[in-house]
């Protein structure tokens, strides 16, 4: 009996050793890990093309995360169509200390970059370094609007009325009578905009908040505007500083593509919001010092009738 007991103990130890060896030879499968590294995510990857009969801009927001290696630096970006032609270019994309960035892709005609609305098709949105190396990319596919129901033809012929020609705005909000600081102006796409303050020489303020900022040339100034935008339209909206421009009495025009001050504190955030939301922030232009006294702010829409002007003092 004692020999049988010893044999049973030996077999038990052998099985324990075998199971332990198998557990060491076959490690448990690794758990799924979330993707890391730079990523771009559009708010809508299959939007409908811009309706040319509707005034205003329409944006797809592209959010970037995981750009920690480029935190507090500036990258460049492009929107490329299926043929490889560049349609939109950003020369300065700010990466936050948290490794995040935001792009606003305007689907409609852009008077700043002098291009028509983006046509239906596939587009690549890419962010990279100044040397041309691409860091991350994503795709957006623009679709034609669904076919409407066929219209019933009238039994008799008729003479169509002429389409009225758009004329520049008159009255409050026109270039002759811009909206005054502290008053609200209603924009064409459901936003109310108000200028709350203007700093005509804001570099010292910018540099105190962002020490890496560069001073403008001696004959120019960083003009920073504090704005309050309230969305009162249907659904959701995005208010981007890119739509704003400055124009002087001698017809010098400044925009956020060519004349931005770079990184500024409390910049106007281009977030998607619902009706009733108030957005606060700064927008800054590097301008000639000699133009400052004659500048007015402009919501630069394609049609002159939809452009709204705001006084800065």
Give an overview of the whole structure.
By secondary structure, the protein is mainly beta. The chain has two domains: 39-142, Macroglobulin (MG2) domain (Immunoglobulin-like); 184-311, Immunoglobulin-like (Sandwich). Helix content is 10%, strand content 34%. It has helices spanning 2-25, 203-209, and strands at 39-42, 59-65, 74-81, 86-94, 101-106, 121-128, 134-142, 184-186, 191-199, 220-231, 236-238, 244-247, 253-255, 272-274, 278-288, 296-299, 308-311. The chain has a four-stranded antiparallel beta sheet, with no helix packed on it.
What is the CATH topology assignment of the largest domain? Answer: Immunoglobulin-like
Describe the strand arrangement of the main beta sheet, using strand numbers: 4-3-6-7
Q: What is the overall shape?
A: globular
Number of domains: 2
Global structural class = mainly beta
> What is the strand content?
25-35%
Mind summarizing the main beta sheet? Answer: 4 strands, antiparallel
Task: Give the low-pLDDT segments.
Answer: 1-25
Report how far the terminal alpha carbons are from each other. 107 Å
What is the correct CATH architecture of the largest domain?
Sandwich
Question: What's the gyration radius in Å?
Answer: 29 Å
The secondary-structure element order is HEEEEEEEEEHEEEEEEEE
CATH class annotation of the largest domain: Mainly Beta
- What is the strand tally? 17
Relative helix content: under 10%
* Count of DSSP-assigned helices: 2
* Average pLDDT for all residues: 83
Oligomer: single chain
